[in-house]
C-alpha cells in the first residue's frame, strides 16, 4: 500500500497519512484518527455533564481526572463505534463516492482483522469505564445497545439521526453518574438537549451524501428535510438551547454558565445563517465547527463549576 491511493477521500493532509507507521494507517483510519471531529463531538456532552455535576456538588477535586478519562474513553469508543459501523456498512460504503476509499471497501483491512481491532478498542474502553463507580459502569454499558443498532437505522427510518443522538449524547448522563452516582433532572434535560443538537449537526453532515444516499436507498433527515433544512435546524437547535438552559436551571448554575450557553446559541445561529446545503465542502466545515460550539458551552460550565467550588 502506498501513496494517495491509500487515503480516505475526505480525510487528506492529516497526520495519519503523513506520519503514522504504514502498517497502522488502515486501523487508525478505521478509528477515524485521521478525522477526529466525531470523537470531539462525542466528548462534548461528557465534559458538559462532568462540569455541571461538579458545580452541583461545589467540588472540582475529581473533575480533572474525569475530564482526562472521558477524553480517552471518547476517542477509543468512537473508534470502536466507527469500526463497527464500517463492518456493517462495507457494501454500502463501496457505492458512495466519499466512503468507497475507507479501509474495508478499499481492501486495506479484512473484516476479521477489523473485528479483532474492534475487540481491542472495546477492551481499552472497558478499562477506562472500570475507573468509575458501579452505577457509572452500568450506565456506560447500557449505551452499547444503542451503538450496536445505529448502523442499521438508515436502512429502515428517515430519522437515523435520532438514534445517533441517543448514542452520541450518552455522555450527558455519564458525568452525573460518575460524579453524583445518579441521574437527575438536570442530566436528563442536558441529555435531551444534546440529542436535539446532534440531530441538527448530523443533518448538516448528511447533506454531503444526499445524492448518493438517494440513489442507493439510504435514509436520512437531510433527505427528509431537503430544502426545508434551515427551518428544521432552527427548530432542533432552538430545542437544544432551551433544554440545555433547563439543565442549567435544574443544576442551579450561575451567570458564567449562562454566558457559555449564550455563546453556544450564537454559534448555532451562525451555522444556520451560513449553511448552503448544495455546497458539500461548506456543510463539512459547518459540521466540524460544532466542536467549537461545544467548547464554548464547556468553558462556561467549567468556569461556573470553579466559581461554585470556591
Structural class, please? Answer: mainly alpha
The count of strands amounts to: 0
List unreliable stretches of 5+ residues.
Answer: 1-5
Order of helices and strands: HHHHHHHHHHHHHHHHH
Task: Bin the strand percentage.
Answer: under 5%
Rg result: 19 Å
Report how far the terminal alpha carbons are from each other: 56 Å
Question: How is this structure best described in words?
Answer:
The protein is an all-alpha fold and 310 residues long. The chain has 17 helices and no strands. α9 packs across α11 (185-206) and α15 packs antiparallel against α17 (290-309). It is globular, with a radius of gyration of 19 Å. It starts with 14 loop residues before the first helix and ends with a helix. Residues 1-5 have low confidence and may be disordered.
In short:
This protein is mainly alpha-helical and 310 residues long. Helix content is 72%, strand content 0%.
Write the layout of secondary structure elements.
Layout: H1 15-18, H2 25-30, H3 37-57, H4 63-88, H5 90-93, H6 111-129, H7 134-142, H8 144-153, H9 160-168, H10 171-180, H11 185-206, H12 210-216, H13 221-225, H14 229-250, H15 255-274, H16 280-288, H17 290-309
Helix pairs in contact: 3-4, 3-10, 3-11, 3-17, 4-6, 4-8, 7-10, 8-9, 9-11, 10-11, 11-14, 11-16, 14-15, 15-17
Amino acid at each position: 500500500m502506498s501513496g494517495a491511493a491509500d487515503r480516505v477521500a475526505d480525510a487528506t493532509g492529516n497526520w495519519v497519512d503523513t506520519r503514522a507507521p504504514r502498517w497502522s494507517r488502515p486501523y487508525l483510519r478505521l478509528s477515524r484518527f485521521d478525522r477526529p471531529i466525531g470523537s470531539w463531538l462525542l466528548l462534548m456532552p461528557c465534559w458538559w455533564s462532568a462540569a455541571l455535576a461538579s458545580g452541583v456538588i461545589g467540588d472540582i477535586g475529581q473533575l480533572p481526572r474525569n475530564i482526562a478519562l472521558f477524553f480517552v474513553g471518547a476517542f477509543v469508543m468512537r473508534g470502536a463505534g466507527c469500526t463497527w459501523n464500517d463492518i456493517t456498512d462495507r457494501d454500502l460504503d463501496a457505492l458512495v463516492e466519499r466512503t468507497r476509499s475507507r479501509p474495508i471497501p478499499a481492501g486495506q483491512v479484512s473484516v476479521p482483522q477489523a473485528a479483532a481491532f474492534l475487540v481491542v478498542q472495546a477492551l481499552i474502553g472497558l478499562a477506562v469505564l472500570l475507573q468509575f463507580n458501579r452505577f457509572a459502569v452500568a450506565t456506560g454499558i447500557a449505551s452499547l445497545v444503542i451503538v450496536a443498532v445505529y448502523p442499521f437505522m438508515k436502512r429502515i427510518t428517515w430519522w437515523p439521526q435520532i438514534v445517533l443522538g441517543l448514542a452520541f449524547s450518552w455522555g450527558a448522563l455519564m458525568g452525573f453518574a460518575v460524579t453524583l452516582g445518579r441521574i437527575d433532572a438536570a442530566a436528563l434535560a442536558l441529555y435531551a438537549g444534546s440529542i436535539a443538537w446532534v440531530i441538527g449537526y448530523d443533518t448538516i453532515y448528511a447533506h454531503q451524501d444526499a445524492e448518493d444516499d438517494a440513489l442507493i436507498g439510504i435514509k436520512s433527515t437531510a433527505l427528509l428535510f431537503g430544502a426545508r433544512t434551515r427551518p428544521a435546524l432552527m427548530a432542533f437547535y432552538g430545542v437544544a438551547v432551551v433544554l440545555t438552559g433547563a439543565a442549567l436551571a435544574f443544576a442551579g448554575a450561575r451567570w458564567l454558565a449562562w454566558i457559555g450557553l449564550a455563546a453556544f446559541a450564537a454559534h448555532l445561529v451562525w451555522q444556520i445563517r451560513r449553511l448552503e446545503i448544495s455546497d458539500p465542502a461548506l456543510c463539512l466545515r459547518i459540521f466540524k465547527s460544532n466542536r467549537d460550539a461545544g467548547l464554548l458551552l464547556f468553558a462556561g460550565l467549567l468556569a461556573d463549576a470553579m466559581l461554585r467550588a470556591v
